[in-house]
Amino acid sequence: MARFKELAELFEELEKITSHKEIVRKLAGFFEGLKGNEVRDSAYLFLGSIGPAFENTTLGIKDRLAIRAIAGAYGVPEEEVIRKYAREGDLGDVAFVLSEKREASLTIEDVFERLRQIKEASGKGSQEEKTGLLSDILQKATPEEGKYIVRLVLGRLRLGFGDQFLLEAFSIAFTGDKKHAGKIKESYSVCTDIGKLAKTLAEHGARTPGNFSIKPGRPVKSMLSQRVESFEELEKRVQGKKAAEEKYDGERIQVHKDGDWIKAFSRRLEDITAQYPDIIEAVKKSVTVDKIVLDGEIVAYAELEKDGNRIEKFYPFQRLMQRRRKYEIEKYREKCPVAVFFFDILYLNGESLLKKPYPERRALLEMHVAVQGIVHLARRTITENIEEIEDFFNETVEKGLEGIVVKSMSSGSVYEAGKRSWFWFKWKQEYSEGMRETFDLVVVGSYYGRGRRRGSFGALLCAVLNEEEQRFETLTKVGTGFTEADAEEINSLLSAHIASEAPKNVSIKKGMLPDIFIEPTVVIEVLGSEITNSPGHTAGEGKEETGLALRFPRFLRIRYDRGPYDATTVKEIRDLKDGA
Ligand code: AMP
Fold it and tell me: Which domain holds residue 528?
């Protein structure tokens, strides 16, 4: 049984290491020494969680309860904990200071089990129960252990790396060679439960990848589309017969049905079932087959009567975001009606459809989903003729939609989970307005505002993801396009992620240092017009190359549905610059 002490010591070490290789090496060494469920549990813990992303793993303890638990554990008044919190800035550090030295006795399993118990305490009296459970384990923990238990409970582990580093470490630890990392990453797109993946790898080694399949209850990573520069490029990329589908501007949804059990997952694999009771009810009516997994987009939508005609109204993404809530769900269901447009089917009665070509999947989709009420199928046109696609695009934009997705109909057009696939191409309205492109950028800093925005931010320092290094590199400063309401919302979002120094997975040039550093968490969509070389930014910077910068950036909206690792990548920016 591995001690929790070893894990806590490794957390401490990892916080300080910046080298990608070194972090992976340390993680691999640690996993090599684990057995059975410890492998699974540690995989979750490194990501600051106690389960896969698609399970609700919030423990239900915020600062107030943690303060009470810490005070109880160490026999000090709550005021003292609050005072120390103000000084240290982190409740884990407060636990460390207050705790007495003792022999380490806890195992990883002890801590993991306790975190689960804290999560599961619910109903009347659960606050006291949760506080008691935390207090009790803190009394058994060493100062170092206490620090990380508190951070884990509050969801503030922040080791500065994500799941990709873990997958690389698994390759070394469980297959003895880093060369299997690519395959393991592919498996992770289908088996998105990192603990389960780790445990299976530990048991079966290099034979594991490829053995995972989609199943109801475990969402796969979404297939994504490529961008193209022009219609000519589209013609080159997708030869022969192709389908152009309407592109709906809302939230990606994966619906899983197993009998009466229906769940919805977001692109970030979060369980969003509770937010959309209307969608769940509608799917129940539209889909009679027993087991199915569907992929689609939810949009804010209404059918209106105008001069005796029925017209469809597609509302902007911002309106849909009102549905992102835990409370007043019924009220907002009325206030902001939605519709779902399914465009793919991934699983049917025990059979994975991921390897079937798109035309076959679409035929099955049409066979098993009845279009009625708020359930629709993505509308499309099939043609070989690029002019017809252009006409379809123009009609689509006319309707108030954002563009089209052109899909290959070739026999190889499988569903590529987790990939920006060369079978799907998006073409948006902005593209037809010259070289204007939208980017999903991660906020890594902010500059104080002047004038009207005094006391709030003036501009945001934004970064792209360097996929190889799993690091965020700055691309641009965004200072325009915000309404007052946007500014307020961004301020409140960012305030929860302020860092005291540059986060170690962010690379910023000296001359670009912001007034406030932000942990890479919040993603915004930005419209920009040109990529240029720039010594001021670090995006794509190499020994021989200067960084790249985005010129004339304009804020469009907050992307609640994207995490930092879903952001635009350095490679995409480079391809755009090279006109690839
Ligand atoms: P973007 O967000 O601009 O990268 O565009 C990709 C997103 O468009 C996908 O992740 C989907 O959520 C969404 N989308 C809307 N309609 C479709 C469609 N018909 N086919 C595929 N993706 C679509």
Answer: 437-578
Asked whether residue 364 is assigned to any structural domain, the reply reads yes
Query: How much is the pLDDT for 575?
Result: 86
pTM beyond cutoff 0.85: yes
Task: Out of 252, 342, 345, 401, give the residue to mutate to test ligand 1, the one with the largest number of ligand atoms within 8 Å of its CB.
Answer: 252
Amino acid at 394: N
Q: Does the Cβ of 266 fall within 6 Å of ligand 1? A: no
- Kindly give the distance from the C-alpha atom of residue 425 to the centroid of ligand 1, in angstroms, as a whole number: 9
> For 270-283, b where at least 16 C-beta lie within 10 A, e where not — what string?
bbbbebbebbbebb
Burial 161-185 (b: 16+ CB within 10 A, else e): bbbbbbbbbbbbbbbeebebbebbb
Together in a domain, 372 and 459 = no
Dump pLDDT digits (tens) for 468-497.
Answer: 889 999 999 998 888 888 888 898 899 889
483 domain-assigned: yes
Q: Tell me which of 84, 247, 257, 263 is the catalytic residue.
A: 247
Ligand 1 pocket: which of 426, 429, 576 to mutate (most atoms <8 Å of CB)? 426
Claim to verify: residue 408 and residue 448 sit in the same structural domain: no
Assess whether 442 and 424 both reside in one domain: no
Going by CA atoms, what residue is nearest to atom 2 of ligand 1? 249
For the Cβ of 440 lying below 6 angstroms from any atom of ligand 1, the answer is no
Cβ neighbours of 268 (radius 10 Å): 18
Out of 432, 467, 492, a domain closes at 432
Residue 435 has pLDDT above 70, yes or no: no
Quick one: 414 and 443 in the same domain?
A: no
CATH number, domain with residue 352 = 3.30.470.30
534-558 mean pLDDT = 91
Taking CA atoms only, the protein residue closest to ligand 1 atom 17 is 247
Q: How far is CA 113 from the centre of its chain?
A: 26
pLDDT at residue 428, rounded to an integer: 85
Q: Tell me, what CATH number does 497's domain have?
A: 2.40.50.140
Same domain, 353 and 499: no
**Residue 247 is among the residues annotated as catalytic for this protein:** yes
